[in-house]
Specification:
Length: 563
């Protein structure tokens, strides 16, 4: 059977949702698959959001369907246009293009208001003048029923008049709400006459001061799904307890065939990573980080600036899977595995010395000699670039030792080592400064040992990188530690339980230093990704200028994660 040119019989379902979709399509319950990406524009997206958006877009695409991007902007106290704009950029970076862009405030507020009026006429909603505190006291507990509002049995005519008074601004903020009339003894607390509308005079980032009442999320969300024609409303597992309410509002407010279905997947958390827009906003507002796109931040703009790739993030969340528990927690090293794997395949190789030690090649008389460096050994089309070998070069200080540990295969006094793409050199003498520190090394090169044309027969175990004195420029390298202390596995939980921000922060999580880079890197552009040979993966930062190239450390070369 085919739907939108997709042969359903060839699809192998990966989870219970896909089994349900196949059954629904074959039995005519739905004619197509439409999902929605419904963010509230109250902060920038973080890594865990990628799971939801990947599920939304990939599920629809698998069945030839559509995904809409809907700004669920029903709370003017939190929302800003800056955040909404960032979502469009994030989705484009992830490689997703929504079939439709919708702002709920503009598209649906009038329709939702009319549905609320009809529910009043149907005896399904009433205006309540209890305060928020009084409502809370009458809701009951998990073992005790709630107490009905004294305003619950007002006439339909009075409720309709009062609701219109709410819209016309005749009530002060907090003095009246519209509540659904369901069941104050319902075992699910969400079903105990939930609030549908509140009076709130707040400036909306798109509508200005047009409205002084706003629909609550639990009321607006299912109706927005229905108005859009969404067939599967996919969300994380904490909304599972809200599903009966979602379905009640669809049944009593929408009343039409082909209602959307809410289905839930496990929420994703990552060890040692601060997840939650509320906490991230606090860090930005308090100046703990340098904006939402700080490379230490788990926001998409942050990890993108640091050098993470969209493919790595999507591969990571797909590896976590759908899940049928409330929350799945994974180690950060699991994400790093996919980042490292992707960068290994796409990053251009370059030689950069982070902690330089001067080396004089005493028997080399020429100014410099060209050598070739592969741009990426994993990509046969990546080509090579020209570097230089000369009389004065710089190597990493850690690549020379006066007292080498066992199995040290780098340079020692009297020993040899191969220079990447160039010759084998031998250290003949160590020159010290007046403070007893190593000033430079005097070495000789072995003429018949050039890489790719070695006829010497000399055996050399170690290979190190270097830059030549006439082929380098200074760059700024930003090295990062994790923003949160390693021992804090769940920083959001720690903050919610009373921990102070300073108690969970890793001190000195950003360190800047000067490094020597081969001139090849002068061609770099912002967000270009490189493997600094033998050191790690780096990305050119947007703060770079022609006078100061800045590279962010993305991730080390070593991988401790077992897939």
């Amino acid at each position: 059977m085919k739907i939108n040119n997709i042969d359903l019989d060839t699809i192998i379902p990966e989870n219970d949702l896909e089994k349900e979709i196949i059954s629904d399509l074959k039995n005519g319950v739905n004619k197509e698959v439409i999902t929605r990406c419904p963010p509230e524009p109250s902060g920038y997206w973080h890594i865990a959001h990628v799971k939801a958006w990947t599920i939304d877009f990939d599920t629809a695409a698998k069945f030839g369907g559509k995904t809409y991007l809907r700004m669920d902007d029903t709370n003017p106290l939190k929302e800003e246009g800056e955040f909404a704009e960032s979502y469009l950029e994030d989705l484009a970076w992830l490689g997703y293009k929504p079939d439709k862009l919708i702002y709920a405030s503009e598209a649906y507020f009038e329709d939702i208001y009319k549905i609320a009026e009809q529910m009043i006429l149907d005896g399904k909603a009433y205006v309540c003048e209890l305060s928020a505190e009084e409502v809370s006291k009458t809701r009951g507990t998990l073992t005790e029923p709630g107490i009905e509002s004294p305003y619950r049995n007002r006439s339909i005519e009075e409720n309709l008049r009062l609701f219109r008074d709410m819209r016309d601004g005749k009530f002060e903020d907090g003095k009246a709400t519209l509540r659904a009339k369901i069941d104050m003894a319902h075992p699910n607390m969400n079903m105990r006459d939930p609030v549908m509308y509140r009076v709130l005079r707040a400036h909306h980032y798109r509508l200005g001061d047009k409205w002084c009442i706003y629909p609550m999320y639990d009321f607006a969300h299912p109706l927005e799904d229905a108005l859009e024609g969404v067939t599967y409303s996919l969300c994380s597992m904490e909304f599972h307890e809200h599903r009966p309410l979602y379905e009640w509002f669809i049944e009593n407010g929408w009343k039409r065939p082909y209602p959307p279905k809410q289905r839930e997947f496990s929420r994703l958390t990552i060890e040692n990573v601060l997840i939650g827009k509320r906490y991230l906003k606090q860090f930005v507002n308090d100046g703990i980080v340098k904006g939402w796109d700080d490379p230490r931040f788990p926001t998409l703009v942050g990890v993108r600036r640091r050098g993470y790739t969209a493919k790595a993030l999507k591969d990571f969340v797909k590896s976590v899977g759908w899940g049928n528990v409330l929350e799945v927690t994974v180690p950060y090293s699991a994400l790093e595995y996919y980042v490292r794997n992707d960068l290994n395949n796409i990053a251009t190789r370059a030689m950069v010395v982070l902690d330089p030690l001067k080396v004089v090649i005493t028997n080399f008389d020429n100014k410099s000699e060209d050598i070739e460096i592969e741009n990426n050994p994993n990509d046969e089309n990546a080509g090579k670039h020209i570097s230089k070998f000369g009389k004065i070069i710089y190597i990493e200080k850690e690549d020379f030792s006066l007292n080498p540990p066992p199995k040290y295969n780098r340079l020692v006094e009297g020993g040899i080592v191969r220079l990447k793409g160039a010759y084998i050199i031998k250290c003949n003498k160590v020159i010290f400064d007046e403070n007893g520190e190593i000033d430079h090394l005097e070495c000789e090169y072995l003429p018949n040992t050039k890489s790719g044309n070695d006829t010497s027969g000399v055996k050399c175990k170690g290979t190190i990188h270097f830059v030549s004195d006439d082929n380098y420029f200074k760059i700024t390298v930003r090295e990062f530690k994790n923003l949160i202390k390693r021992e804090i596995a769940n920083p959001a939980k720690a903050l919610s339980e009373g921990a102070k921000v300073e108690d969970i922060l890793e001190p000195n999580s950003l360190i800047e230093k000067t490094a020597y880079a081969e001139n090849f890197l002068k061609n770099a552009k912002v967000e270009d990704k490189f493997q600094f040979i033998r050191k790690g993966y780096y990305c050119m930062d947007k703060d770079s200028t022609p006078e100061n190239y800045i590279f962010n450390s993305t991730i080390s070369l070593k991988d401790g994660f077992k897939k």
